Amino acid sequence: MEASQLEDLFLDRLQRLCSVPSPLVVGVSGGQDSMALLTLLVNVQARWPAPLFPVHVDHGIRPESAEDALFVDSTVRRLFGLKVAQEHIRVLPKAGESVEMAARRERYALLEKHRHLAGPGALITVAHHRRDQAETVLMRLVNGTGIRGLQGMRERNQKIVRPLLTFSPVELREYLQQHQVPWCEDESNQDTRFLRNRIRWELLPVLADRFNPQIEEALASVAQRAQESYAVIHGETETFLSRNDVRFDQDVLFLPQEFAELKTAIQTDIFETVASSWHLRVNHHHIFEAIGGEANWPDGVRVRRHNRGGWVIWRHPSSVAEDCVWVEQVLPEEGSVDLALKGRLIVTRKHFDGGVESVVCIDKEKWSDLWVRPWQQGDRIEPLGMKGHHKKVGDVFTDYKVPRERRPYWPIIVNRDDMSRVLGIAGIMTAEIARCQMGAVCTQIRYVDKA
């Protein structure tokens, strides 16, 4: 392919991924792919004037990495007149991480730092190409994955763009040769102790020679179709999470009984989305156990199905004891109900005399079979005097300054026949539908908080 044709295709892809010529932080390792990316960006700059900010990250893993840093700095200055930001890091893998994974995490953290420095609207661009995509799909297949993993890498993932993802490494090499742009070889890319390298040098060639010469294109196509299918599944996930007001900034999440009625693919994606939002590495066994109703995930995260059919997921077990995650229970005609470590309810029967705002008073004749359960995201209440107007219980908590860490255990008064209808929020308010008339027999519920 002629260099001008490649540049036209690249520019078209870049314009599809970026609505305007935003500042671009360019990851430049000095290898063939990243040097091709930077060269293309420079050569289309007359038509796409995006400010360029090359960044080189020296991971310090290889003895010759310092030489690579010098090569990138001198070559980019000489050929393009650009200054390269140099970063040096020490790779320290976390539990369960390989050195490669840790290096990737640290590298993207540094690129993100430079993206912020580059100004509003800046993006990160990296040089992954079609073979990288094929390797990623194969790696995930070998390790075991579902449709989420089969997506491989996306051309645009939030602030990261990969404009070379449809190009072959052969095309990129020829382009550099046509422009006489040098690159350096990373010897670690030949080290078959790493899974990706074994796939690159051992598995892919066998598949290409003996099964399908177009295996890279075939695997890239699988990734594209998986992305299209996953978009449908994840749309259902987002609808469910939004409808039930599930927010990941909380340490305890409740999934209502409706979760059990969802298709397995959506249940799986919901749990994977929770794990991703909490930065957890989970496998298909973790997900299978969670769907089954009992799972212990990494970092002490636990998943349990409670006896009313919903699921509870919580983290930070040192501050959130398992026996604090209580489930619904019946309220007696009179007496007290212990709510694990989070307080108790004192229940009395009396003729209504006006009551106290913080004491829930419920019409005994209309609502005789009362239960108490923990708050769930999505709960709503119609406060006294606000006929026809409902509020999210979460918003009520905000109004009454209930700390977020205590909300998942807050007692909600309901009737057994419809446990989704909120009759009262213990210690806070009574619902309009539970209103007592003066002199009528009512159930009075007082909350004694132990927290």
Description:
- This protein is of the alpha+beta class and 451 residues long.
- Helices cover 37% and strands 18% of the residues.
- The protein contains twelve helices and 21 strands.
- The radius of gyration is 29 Å and the shape is elongated.
- It folds into three domains: 3-222, HUPs (Rossmann fold), CATH 3.40.50.620; 244-323; 329-448, Phenylalanyl-trna Synthetase, Chain B, domain 3 (Phenylalanyl-tRNA Synthetase, Chain B, domain 3, 3-Layer(bba) Sandwich), CATH 3.50.40.
- It has helices spanning 3-17, 32-43, 65-80, 99-118, 130-143, 147-150, 169-179, 195-210, 215-243, 264-277, 284-292, 393-399, and strands spanning 24-27, 52-58, 85-88, 123-125, 156-157, 160-161, 252-255, 294-296, 302-305, 311-314, 329-330, 335-338, 344-351, 360-363, 370-374, 380-381, 391-392, 411-415, 424-425, 429-430, 441-448.
- The protein starts with a helix and ends with a strand.
- A six-stranded mixed sheet has the order 3-2-1-4-6-5, sandwiched between helices.
Q: Strands, helices and their partners?
A:
Elements: H1 3-17, E1 24-27, H2 32-43, E2 52-58, H3 65-80, E3 85-88, H4 99-118, E4 123-125, H5 130-143, H6 147-150, E5 156-157, E6 160-161, H7 169-179, H8 195-210, H9 215-243, E7 252-255, H10 264-277, H11 284-292, E8 294-296, E9 302-305, E10 311-314, E11 329-330, E12 335-338, E13 344-351, E14 360-363, E15 370-374, E16 380-381, E17 391-392, H12 393-399, E18 411-415, E19 424-425, E20 429-430, E21 441-448
Parallel strand pairs: 1-2, 1-4, 2-3, 4-6
Antiparallel strand pairs: 5-6, 7-10, 8-9, 9-10, 11-15, 12-13, 13-21, 14-21, 15-18, 16-17, 18-19, 19-20
Helix pairs in contact: 2-7, 5-8, 5-9, 9-10, 10-11
